[in-house]
Design goal:
- With 245 residues, this protein is α+β, with helices and mostly antiparallel strands.
- The chain has a single domain, classed as 3-Layer(aba) Sandwich (Rossmann fold).
- It has a seven-stranded mixed β-sheet with strand order 1-2-9-8-7-4-5.
- A hairpin with a 3-residue loop joins strand 8 and strand 9.
- The protein starts with 10 loop residues before the first helix and ends in a 14-residue tail after the last helix.
Length: 245
Amino acid sequence: MVMHQPTSNPGRVGKVLQELGFDLDIRCPAAGQSLPTTLEHHSGTVVFGGPMSANDEHLDFIAQELDWIALALAAEKPYLGICLGAQLLARALGASVMPHPTGQREIGYYPILPTPAGQEVFPGPLIVYQWHQEGFMLPQGSQLLATGSTFPYQAFRYGNQAYGLQFHPEITTTMVNHWTTEGADHLAYPGAQGRAYHLSQHRLYSAAVGRWLKPFLAGWLGVSAQAEALWGSAVPVITASKGAS
């Protein structure tokens, strides 16, 4: 797992992966920690969000991650990018990452809709947590899985093993409290929702995202028996060995 701040944590994604039997190898290149030179002993990669931009190649660790993602994809192991992690994946695949043309942001809970190709991943619409000012364009050769009204590209798949999600399925109540307190100044930006709305919407929609997340992660990592028990057979199944993730 790649984090972008020493104080970050994998939240609900980390919890679910541990429930599925995977160990977590957490690295923070922004704090000087190295990334593995091989993924031979890892079952997959999760790259989380952060306050920096995927265009910040003047930051050594961002430039390093953009190069390293090519290694992760070449290893043919499952890759999951969340927010910045999705934008880094898009950039590594040759697509652009940029702010909304009118300066809008998504900070709070917003709906996403599955595309026809995405219905195997998203059985229906979801209201999901967002915190970003930039979005990615769709990389060539990838499939758009979910759309949104402000930022149209919300989820994509490249090949069978690499996924980019613009939203934050890892978010917990503790994280919502922390982000809206430490990042309170961001709540005044165009399109952002107020702190009270974040909290009320989290109470309403967090459980549905949680019900989606566990079978998605099980299918993504090829734990097919768990995935089918949780969600039925309509999940992306990827072969992967258990181990560090």
